[in-house]
Amino acid sequence: MRVERLSSVSETDLMAGKIVLITGGTGGIGKATAIGLARLGARVGITGRDLRRCERAAAEIRTISGNPAIDAFAADLSSQAEVHRLATTVLNAYPRLDVLINNVGGFWAHRHSTADGLEHTFALNHLASFLLTNILLDRLKDSAPARVVTVSSHVQAEGRIDFDDLQSAGNYSGQSAYSQSKLANVMFTNELARRLEGTGVTANSLHPGIVRTDFGAEDQARLFTVVSKLVLPFLKTPAQGAQASIYLASSPSLDGVTGEFFANGKPRTANKVAYDTDMTLRLWNVSADLVGVTSAIA
């Protein structure tokens, strides 16, 4: 199937009548994605941990985009209880859901545990998207054609899924944990795409480029801080990085395109593990156990 190269998305009514939910939408790529899709006419919901910050970001998105249909949802997605609460709120608010953008993520130099006793990087970067997508899946199917877009990273190529220590309890490395979670994003997407064949819901993942944000600011290693300052002038702006998510969420050229990993606006070959159906199935089942999903799609 022919796929057009990513190009700048013009301000049209391309997404008029569509409803989009973006996790992690209060800043960086998520906020820029919300602005871009709002300019295309979509009703956009954004999530953030702090309600005031989320409402402030929503107000800014309304002003910049000229679109008043921006909703703020507060939830700490590292907590499974909060994911469930968010999903219930979204289902009550939106009679349909055309696009789910799993954008939330982070990097931690040191190991932290969530309220559920899970390693924070894996819990937020992968399990939150896995759980939220599964809960919202029936609404997406009912709204088909619909799309699930998951933001990964180029570091997925370096990732390794350690099924013996997914929680990095043995020997924690911030970079290894992050790379593992970003590979998990692509594996989840590919398995989801396989399971959704024939439903009208597509699933794709992407690398947004190296973007200038406050990524990792909560817990940076000293070297990470120094390197970040050195490379800052060469990084993409959040608006530039958001173009990939906007494209995957809105482009008519991607109707029916599923199970692809995009970088620089084109489908690319991801880590070979992401195409191993035994491995993606195993990750799916382990993830389902970790979040207590008993009715995940077969």
3D structure, described in words:
By secondary structure, the protein is α/β, with parallel strands linked by helices. It has one domain (19-288): NAD(P)-binding Rossmann-like Domain (Rossmann fold). 42% of the residues lie in helices and 13% in strands. It contains eight helices and eight strands, in the order E-H-E-H-E-H-E-H-E-H-E-H-H-E-E-H. The chain has helices at residues 28-39, 51-65, 80-93, 120-142, 174-195, 222-231, 238-250, 277-291; strands at residues 19-22, 43-48, 70-74, 99-102, 146-151, 201-207, 261-263, 266-268. The protein has an eight-stranded mixed beta sheet, sandwiched between helices. Helix 5 (174-195) crosses helix 8 (277-291).
Quick summary:
With 298 residues, the protein is of the alpha/beta class. The protein contains 8 helices and 8 strands.
Helix content: 40-55%
> What's the arrangement of strands in the largest beta sheet?
3-2-1-4-5-6-7-8
**How many structural domains can be distinguished in the coordinates?**
1
CATH class: Alpha Beta
Under CATH, the topology can be stated as Rossmann fold
Structural class: alpha/beta
| Major sheet size, sense and barrel closure | 8 strands, mixed
N- to C-terminal distance: 26 Å
Which blocks of ≥5 consecutive residues have pLDDT under 50?
A: 1-8
The tally of helices reads 8
The helix/strand series, from N terminus to C terminus, equals EHEHEHEHEHEHHEEH
